[in-house]
Predict the 3D structure of the following.
Amino acid sequence: MIIHSYENSQRADTCIDYLKSSDKIKNVKKLFLLPIPSSRDKRTILGTTVNIFDVFDAAEPMSLIVGYGLSDEFLDAAEECGCGAFDVSRDEDFLLENAELTALATLGIILTSTKKSPVDTKIGVVGYGRIGKRLCRHLLFQGSRVRVYTSTEDIRLDLCECGIETLESCAEAD
């Protein structure tokens, strides 16, 4: 299989590893990996001046174009040209793997940007979705005191039962 990547990063490597471990690239001859996210304006590939639809010029049957946040228009055009398109932003398993990678990167930034020990830090996490859950787990494992800001009352109650301080909004913070 030939892989054309418009991005070289750990996210791209994670995406390729995820695809290889799934049935999504079975029988694929060419894989086109767009950046994560793929486009801000739905027209150009992020970080380039290349029109996102120009990918179809190099694609052929048995090709798969993989991106993040691909428009319905793009997905329809892929089907019309006879190649496949897969939007990882619509795949929960990928989103969970990406959330873990983002949480670990955030933890790395936190640990390298201060001289304090994790035990001596109190860190606020805004939101308790895919990334927030993973980041909290890592911070708690490091011994940090964690405060979660979330507007969802059920989540606040569950976290309080686990001993995690919660607030409804950042405006309540001291």
Notes: The chain has six helices and seven strands.
